UniProtKB/TrEMBL annotation:
EC numbers: 3.1.1.93, 3.1.2.22
Coiled-coil ranges from the UniProt annotation: none
One Pfam family, short name: Abhydrolase_6
Name listed for the protein in its UniProt record: Palmitoyl-protein thioesterase ABHD10, mitochondrial
UniProt cross-references to InterPro entries, sorted A to Z: AB_hydrolase_1, AB_hydrolase_fold, ABHD10_acyl-thioesterase
Job description of the protein: Acts as an acyl-protein thioesterase that hydrolyzes fatty acids from acylated residues in proteins. Regulates the mitochondrial S-depalmitoylation of the nucleophilic active site residue of peroxiredoxin-5/PRDX5, a key antioxidant protein, therefore modulating mitochondrial antioxidant ability. Also catalyzes the deglucuronidation of mycophenolic acid acyl-glucuronide, an active metabolite of the immunosuppressant drug mycophenolate.
Organism superkingdom: Bacteria
Hydrolase listed as a keyword: yes
GO molecular function: hydrolase activity
Catalytic activity: mycophenolic acid O-acyl-beta-D-glucuronide + H2O = mycophenolate + D-glucuronate + H(+); S-hexadecanoyl-L-cysteinyl-[protein] + H2O = L-cysteinyl-[protein] + hexadecanoate + H(+)
Keywords: Hydrolase, Transit peptide
Signal peptide limits: none
Oxidoreductase listed as a keyword: no
């Protein structure tokens, strides 16, 4: 793995990232909620890119992983701006965004902001609009009143917080209610034993995307993380199939 570098945002935020230059569109991995670039899927994508000479970018949103800051200040809009700022700062002209869970919502928002630079999307259990469908009505009322809610966390010892600022920003960035104006190739991977994000969300997303080149792969025994060896192999094949033909065409 390459060394961690930091990008300074205009307000002084420091965004940790790893970047491996290479051929073709740059694979940009976007972690899920409270996750970071040290996760197994992100690491596997980076190592695959290095082994095949592809360009790859990993990053930690502010307040996550190696990026300093308070997680409670995070929001989709804030983190989307950080993604776009890094792409700009590195001078990346063509990118394929790969988003896991919440990262699958961020890949859509960042993709809309990147315009013609976006060459593809790979969603792993993508969770667009989860502040709407994933939050109980009673909890929405608490969040609207400015309270933080906490839920059991099956992936760690600490409960998972949802802060009112994050929730309100999510509600302002809902996408599944209308057409999503993206025309690039899209590949969505979703486990049918996902207890956190219903696999039907990927089908809804496929319907709302304007692109005609959208494929959904359902893994019947797959869970939310899709981090088994077979799941990661599928992810790497999917990413490579999107990027390698474009890399060859650019040579």
């Amino acid at each position: 793995m390459t060394d961690i570098r930091f990008h300074a945002m205009p307000d002084g935020r420091q965004i940790a990232f790893r970047f491996a230059p290479g051929q073709g569109p740059t694979l940009v991995f976007l972690p899920g909620y409270m996750s970071d670039m040290a996760g197994g899927k992100a690491t596997a994508v980076f190592e695959m890119a290095q082994a095949t000479g592809l360009s790859c970018l990993l990053l930690d949103y502010s307040g996550c992983g190696e990026s300093p800051g308070d997680f409670a200040d995070g929001s989709l809009s804030r983190w989307k701006d950080e993604i776009v700022a890094l792409v700009d700062a590195l001078g990346l002209q063509d990118v394929v965004l790969m988003g896991s869970s919440m990262g699958g919502w961020l890949m859509l928002l960042a993709g809309l902001a990147l315009g013609e630079r976006l060459k593809g999307l790979v969603g792993i259990a993508p969770a667009p609009d989860f502040t709407d469908w994933g939050v109980a009505q009673m909890d929405k009322a608490l969040l609207a009143d400015g309270e933080t809610i906490y839920e059991d966390n099956p992936y760690g010892p600490e409960p998972t917080p949802t802060h009112p600022g994050f929730w309100a920003d999510g509600q302002a960035n809902l996408l599944l209610g209308g057409e999503i104006a993206l025309d690039c190739p899209v590949r969505l991977l979703h486990g049918q034993r996902d207890p956190d994000v219903p696999w039907e969300i990927s089908l809804q997303l496929a319907e709302k995307l304007r692109s005609a080149d959208v494929q959904v792969t359902l893994i019947k025994d797959g869970d939310h993380r899709l981090s088994r060896e077979s799941d990661i192999a599928l992810l790497l094949r999917t990413a490579a199939e999107l990027v390698l033909p474009r890399a060859a065409a650019a040579d």
